[in-house]
Every structure is written in C-alpha cells, then in structure tokens.
Amino acid sequence: MHIYKLWQSYFRMPLLLRLLATVAVLMFSFGLIIHLAEPQHFTTIFDGIWWAFVTGSTVGYGDYVPLSNAGRIIAILLILSGGGVVTFYMAAVSATTLKHEEALSKGNITFKGANHIIFIGWNERTRQLLELMHHNQKSEQFVLIDQTLNELPYRDHSFHFVHGDPTADEVLQKANINKAKYAIVTADPAKKEHQADQASILTTVALRGNNPDIHIITEVLTKNQITNAKRAGANTIIRSNDFMSTLFYQEIFRTSPVQPFELLLEVLKNQQFTQQSLPQKLEGKNFLEVSDYYVASERLLIGIIRNQEVQLNPPFQQPLIKGDTLLLLEKM
C-alpha cells in the first residue's frame, strides 16, 4: 500500500521533476551495480555513478570503462535505457523553456511580484510612459494588461504582459492585482470618447473591487465623466482633453517666444510637482520668505492651495496661514 501511494505521488509530480527523479534513480542504480560488478576498477559508488552519468549522457570521457564481460553488458543496458531517458529529459527541458517563453509572449503567465505598477491598455501614451520610467532608471516592476494584442515578444520589452479583458477578475489576478501598488488606466484611442470613458470607468471599478488599497490613476476624455470616475474609485483623474485644449490655447495666444509644449515637456521630464501642508514654523511668514526657505533645499515654491482654490505665484508679501497647501516643483 505504501509503494502504491509512492507510485501515485511519482505520477503527480511535474514532468520535469519526474524525469529528473527517473534519471537520478537510474544513474544511481547503474553506478551501484557497476561498483558491485567491478569493485577493483570502480572503487567507490561515486565512481560508478560518475561513469553512469558520463555514459548515459553519451559524453564518454573514457576515464572509467568496464573491463569484464559482465561490466560491458551493464554498460550496454545503460546505453539502451539511460541514454534515452537523459536525451528525453534534455528535450523536455528545451520544450518546456520554449513553451514558457511562448506563454510569456502571449500573456498567459501569472505575475508573481509585488508592489508593482499595472498599466491598462497598450498605446503610444503607455509606451512613452514606460520609456520615461526606464530613462529615469525607476526600479519598479511593470505589468501591462491589454486585450487587443495577441502576442508581445517578451525579449523586446522590460515588463510583464498579461493578455485579456482588464475588467475580468481572472485577468486581474494574473496581474497579481492584490499586491500591486499603482494602476494606470489609459483611454482606448480606438473607441469613441464616450465609449472609451465608459470602458475606463468599468476597469476602475474592477480594479478597486479587487484591491481596495491600490492607487488608481484614470484617464478620462469627457468632462461629464469625471464624477463617475471618482465614484468608481479613481484616486487621480487625468483629463487629457482639458489639458491639451489649454496647451493649444497657450500656443495660439502666446505673446513670448517660449513654446508651452516644449517647455512643459522639458519641465515634466526632469521635475515633478509635489504638494504638502504648510509647516507650523512657517505660518505667518509671507510667500517670499517661504519660497526662500524651500530654495535652500532646491525646491521651487510655485503657488498655494487655499480653500480649494489654486493660487499660482501669489504676491510676495502675502502671508501664508494655517491650512494652506504648498505647491512645489523639485528634481526627480
């Protein structure tokens, strides 16, 4: 009964482990047998095992060879049985490696990491964002979920690809949504604006439902969907159309040679906007004094938020009060 259970356990093992166990048992057995058959020539069991592996793998160094007829018969049996098993094992390893690589490229492998960033949708914005993170040498791991790509060769990129519908729980589980730190939902450029926003909001709901603590950044195209995106659980909402419309306006009616597109891109590549509450020790000081305080640490104070109203570059003599939020620009 014990042997039967052991036999069952053997066949439940993964193929590669089963083959490796078979090779190990077979080589140990032939090594022991040749040691018993020719103890003067194969003085230790390890010498016999070494000979069995070298012979069974068809390497054939020739440092140990059977001298008796019985030893040669054992060698023939080893070549007929062990050689085929070792060859089959090596072929199985190669096939498994190729199969795993193909599954990675097709997005069928579950991501095992943690504290990673999930990107929803493969488009030009996603590609540029990944390039920007790579350029700034960010160490985070990235997972891309997309259902329009059937294959994405994993050697050509530095992120993990998951194929499927991002609103499906099983697809999100493949991306290890429970251990993710951020999720970025980009609008689908192939859909109409209203449909793209609906898809983004539905994806946000699915993300929030699977991980209540994840920070979700959602891109919306139409202004009337901002409230719905907040209700769906988005922490940050990127309003692409509003942003681009403002830049177009600045470009058309600018009165200086500075081009807002290039200037803003250059700033965002090397600097980042941050906000923090006004420290208690700076309460009552004016904007210029507080600005000088942060310049010493290479941080530029560009404005404040007071009563939910943004004030960019307020008067230098304006005193800052308790409850103000500082808007800062600092190097990444």
Automatic annotation (TrEMBL):
CC per GO annotation: plasma membrane
Topology in the lipid bilayer: Multi-pass membrane protein
Transmembrane helix as UniProt keyword: yes
Domain of life: Bacteria
Alphabetical list of Gene3D superfamilies matching this protein: 1.10.287.70, NAD(P)-binding Rossmann-like Domain
Biological process (GO), any one: monoatomic ion transmembrane transport
Subcellular location: Cell membrane
Keyword Zinc-finger: no
All residue ranges annotated as the RCK N-terminal domain in the record: 114-239
Ranges annotated as spanning the membrane: 15-37, 73-92
UniProtKB keywords: Ion channel, Ion transport, Membrane, Transmembrane, Transmembrane helix, Transport
UniProt protein name: Potassium channel protein YugO
Native organism: Paraliobacillus quinghaiensis
Phylogenetic classification of the source organism: Bacteria, Bacillati, Bacillota, Bacilli, Bacillales
